[in-house]
Amino acid sequence: MSYRDHADYAPLFTGGPVGFYSATRPPCNEVVSGIVMLALAATSAYISYDSAQTTAKQTEYNAQAQADAISAEQKRQAAENEENRRRAVQEQRRFRAQQLATMSGSGAMLGTGSSLALEADTWAKQQTELADQQRVNDLAQNQLAFQRRSTLAMGAA
Prior knowledge:
Layout: H1 30-105, H2 113-156
């Protein structure tokens, strides 16, 4: 039997010239086809596995980079908050000194009676403002720390 007699090599045009054939596959052994298909499946599986590994490494790298950026932002905010607190304390001291100067200029006895109550009230209000500012700063720092931890956790998953 010649290869031209195989069913896959039937002429497209029965009356046409020799050489026009509808060859979909050459005649071959079914075992060889099975081995080729198995090799292709294994290659495809390896490529998929390697792609998944590469994607996982890239995801972990991106998460680490984002976590590092969050840490830098956390440090920047902490420095900014410390500077703001330092300025607020200076402004409060300036205000109390001005208040004392105004009271002494008006002839009030400093350190007694209503002037003492006024000084204490001013100091208490300023300390409350500082505590509120510190609480807001701590909440922002905790939020950034949580965001960093969750970003790292998602990158490791």
